[in-house]
Amino acid sequence: MSDNELDAAVAFALRLADEAGAVARRYFRTAVSVETKSNDTPVTIADREAEAVMRTLIEAEYPNHGILGEEQAPTRLGAEHIWVLDPIDGTKGFLSGVPLFGTLIALVREGIPILGIIDQPILGERWLGVAGRPTTLNGTNARTRACTDLAHASLSTTGVEYLSGPGDLDAFDRVRGAAARFRNIPDCYGYAMLASGFTDLVIEAGLNAWDYCALAPVIEGAGGTITDWRGAPLRLDSDGHVAAAGDARCHAAALEVLAAPGS
Amino acid sequence: MSDNELDAAVAFALRLADEAGAVARRYFRTAVSVETKSNDTPVTIADREAEAVMRTLIEAEYPNHGILGEEQAPTRLGAEHIWVLDPIDGTKGFLSGVPLFGTLIALVREGIPILGIIDQPILGERWLGVAGRPTTLNGTNARTRACTDLAHASLSTTGVEYLSGPGDLDAFDRVRGAAARFRNIPDCYGYAMLASGFTDLVIEAGLNAWDYCALAPVIEGAGGTITDWRGAPLRLDSDGHVAAAGDARCHAAALEVLAAPGS
C-alpha cells in the first residue's frame, strides 16, 4: 500500500467510524432488546446495524478486501487486506448506559494491523493509529507516559472475571501484586487511556481479533508496546492474550512476571 | 426542616456540587501526585481541595451542622444535621483518566439521608434526590425500570475484588449466578445508571457512609429500593453492605439469595 493508498484508507476508516458511531448514538440508552449469542455474550440491533453499515461501505469501496467482524460471518479471509470490525466493543456497558464502549476498526495487511481506530461515539473521543505515524486523539498527538518499572505502574483490565483460561488469573495476580495500583477499565477504553498517558499497563486474555487488532497501531504510534503475553507482536491469528504498556521497560517487567511463577 | 428550609438546603447542595466539580475538572487528566492513605486507597490534591472548598461553604452557611467527609476528620457528629461528602468517589478512575467518578453530597438528619447528589463533573450529569420528591437527572425526572425477578436482572458492582469481607463474595456470586447479566460499573455510576433505568441491581460491600448516604435519596426518589443486605434502610451508621434495585420485587429476590446459601 503506497502512502497515498494508506491516506485514502485512513479517510475511509474515519468514515466507517462516523457511520457506526451514528448507529450507536441512536440506540444508546434506549430500550433495545438483547439476544444472547452462542458464546454467552449479548448482542443488540445496535451491534448488528453498526456492523452492517460498515460492511456495506467496505464492499462498495474495497470489494477485494476481506472483512472479519464480531457479528457476521467472515468474508474473503484469504485477501491481502482485511478489515477487522467490532461495532460495539463493550456491549454490556452499552446496555447498562455507560458511555465507555467503543467502535473498533482495524485494517490488517498480511496478518499485521497497519491502521486502528478506537472511537467513543458518546464522549466524542477518537484515537487513530497508523503504522509508522504518530497516534492522534481527535487530531492531536497522543503519547504514552514513562513508567520505568511495575512498582510505579497503574494497571487495568476489563474485569478479573474475564481471565478464565488455565493459569491466566494466577499470572495476572502476580502482576497485580507487583503494580502500584489496579483498576477495572472496561474493554478498549483502558487501552485508550494508556495511549493518552493516563495509565501504564493493560493485561487481558480471551480477546478476539476484533477486540485487539485496532489497538496495536494506536498503542504503538503513541510510543507504547503491545504484544501477546510471550512478547510476540499482535497478528490476526494471535492467541488473545494481550499485554500493553506505555513504556517498554514496564512492558518487559510485566512479561517477566507473567511468565515466571517464582518471580 | 420545613419545606422552605429543605429548598434552601437543596440550592446550597447544588452550589457545593458546582464548586467541587470545578476543582475536579481542573485536575482531571493532569499529572497530579498521588499519596496512599492508611487504608491503602489513593488520595490526590483534587480530592483534598474539593472537600476543603465544600467544608468552607458549609461552615459559613450552616455553622451548626456536622460534616463527615472522606478526606478530613469529622466535625460535630452529634449535630442533628450532618453533611456527608465524598469529593471524588472513584479516585482510582479519576487518576486513570476515566470520566465516571462522582462527587457525592448527602444531607443526613438524625442519621437518615434526606438529600443526595451524584454529580459527574466531566460528563455533566447530575442526579438529585430529595426525600419525598422525584429524583431528577439534570432537572428531568429519572425513573428506575421494572424488573420482576433476578432471572431478568442486569447486575453491577464496582469490582468483585472489593467484596472481601467474610462470605461477601460467596453471597454475591449466588446473586450473580441467578442474574441475567453482570457488569463492573465503578463506584457511584452504577447507582446512577440504576436510577435512570438502565440497570436493575447493584450489590456492594465495604462501603463507607460517604460512599452510600447520597445514593439513598437518589434511588428512592427514582422509584427504587436501597438497603443493607438484611433489608434495613441505609443510615449514617449502616455496616457498608448495600443492595439497590430499581424494582422492589428484584430487591426482595436479591436479599433472599444473599441471605440463603441454599437458595
Residue windows where pLDDT falls under 50 for at least 5 positions of chain A: none
Hey, roughly how much beta strand do the residues of chain A contain?
15-25%
Helix fraction of chain A by DSSP (H/I, runs of at least 4): 25-40%
CATH topology (fold) name of the largest domain in chain A: Fructose-1,6-Bisphosphatase, Chain A, domain 1
Return the string of H and E elements of chain A: HEEHEEHEEEEEEHEHEHHEEH
Radius of gyration of chain A: 17 Å
Query: How many separate domains of chain A?
Result: 2
Largest sheet of chain A, in brief, is: 7 strands, mixed
| Structure annotation, total helices of chain A | 8
Q: Find the count of extended strands of chain A (DSSP E, 2+ residues).
A: 14
Cα distance, first to last residue of chain A?
Answer: 44 Å
Oligomer: homodimer
Biggest interface: chains and residue counts? A-B, 29 and 29 residues
CATH homologous superfamily title of the largest domain in chain A? Fructose-1,6-Bisphosphatase, subunit A, domain 1
Mean pLDDT of chain A: 96
Strand line-up of the largest beta sheet of chain A: 3-4-5-6-7-8-9
* CATH architectural name of the largest domain in chain A: 2-Layer Sandwich
Indicate the CATH class of the largest domain in chain A: Alpha Beta
| Helix and strand composition category of chain A | alpha+beta
So what's the overall shape of chain A? globular
